[in-house]
Amino acid sequence: MISCKSVRCWFAFLICAFGSLECTAASAQADVVRARYSVSLVGLHIGEAQATGLLQPDGYKIDLNAQLSGLAAMVSRLQMALVSSGSIHRGTVQPASYVTTSANSYETRTVRMALHSGAVTAVDISPPFQDMEGRVPVTEALKRNILDPTSALIMAVPPGQPLVGPTACDRRIPVYDGFTRFDISLSYSGTRTVAVPGYSGPVSVCSARYTPVAGHKRDSRSTQFMAANREIEVWLAPVEHAHVVVPFRISLRTLAGIAVVDAIEFKVEPGDVTATTH
């Protein structure tokens, strides 16, 4: 049976484990990445996710929407919408704003976060989380040099390096979602060839590890499980012009079984460089 808690935890990890954005675009052309994903748990289709990223020479905007469907929607009507925007300075992302709204059958919660130069300047959570006792404190130092979850959608590859191979994978991603602070570490394990509408070609296969840093409960079963989890894999597809890679597939073992998010459509299109990103 699919539990509401397992599904919520998996969606949260899926959104936050997508990578880091450090764009190196040098021309005036903008790239728009549009991806649609199918979500399954223990082989059952349980939802869909859609991501759109506008990458400009000096800024970005990323939208991500996910929702449960079918049997899972009967258990929990979970929907999530996330938006991040910011500037790109010397090849490094500088998030400016992050907003996410999640809703299930019982409540709706919105998290708003403002950032400057990689540091969090303000967080508002409405309604606030009540279960705070026993959590590892998130210090001000841990809120610096971080990415919010949706600014963590696209990963840069160093100039001159191939978009498929070890340089696509090997990295550590510091993430803060307004409540918890954690790291995602990726390491290269191989390549695959894929074909979906919009893209046909190679992808890099990365092994992933989740490391809790703060905001979690030390005795949390789900946190301990994810920290010890060695069955997490991310496939990254290349985006040539911006010289970045983005998630094509994510699979991981959860307390409820194997969960998979798989691209069923993946397109890169020229965008409007005059569009507002922040």
Care to give the gist of this entry?
The chain has 278 residues and is mainly beta. It has four helices and 14 strands. A hairpin with a 2-residue loop joins strand 4 and strand 5 (92-103).
Describe this structure in words.
With 278 residues, the chain is mostly beta strands. It has one domain. Helix content is 11%, strand content 53%. It has helices at 4-16, 70-75, 166-169, 221-228, and strands at 30-41, 44-55, 59-68, 79-89, 92-103, 108-116, 119-126, 155-156, 171-176, 181-196, 199-214, 232-239, 244-254, 257-271. Strands 1, 2, 3, 4, 5, 6, 7, 8, 9, 10, 11, 12, 13 and 14 form a 14-stranded antiparallel beta sheet that branches. β2 and β3 (59-68) form a beta hairpin.
Write the layout of secondary structure elements.
Blueprint (H helix, E strand, L loop, with lengths): L3 H13 L13 E12 L2 E12 L3 E10 L1 H6 L3 E11 L2 E12 L4 E9 L2 E8 L28 E2 L9 H4 L1 E6 L4 E16 L2 E16 L6 H8 L3 E8 L4 E11 L2 E15 L7
Antiparallel strand pairs: 1-2, 1-14, 2-3, 3-4, 4-5, 5-6, 6-7, 8-13, 9-10, 10-11, 11-12, 12-13, 13-14
| Rg calc | 18 Å
How helix-rich are the residues, as a percent range? 10-25%
Please, how many domains?
1
Strand content: over 45%
What is the terminal-to-terminal distance? 42 Å
Name the assembly state. Answer: single chain
The major beta sheet can be summarized as: 14 strands, antiparallel
Low-pLDDT segments, ≥5 res: 1-13, 15-27, 274-278
H and E order: HEEEHEEEEEHEEEHEEE
Mean pLDDT: 83
Structural class: mainly beta
Q: Could you tell me the number of beta strands? A: 14
Number of helices: 4
> Given the C-alpha coordinates, what overall shape results?
globular
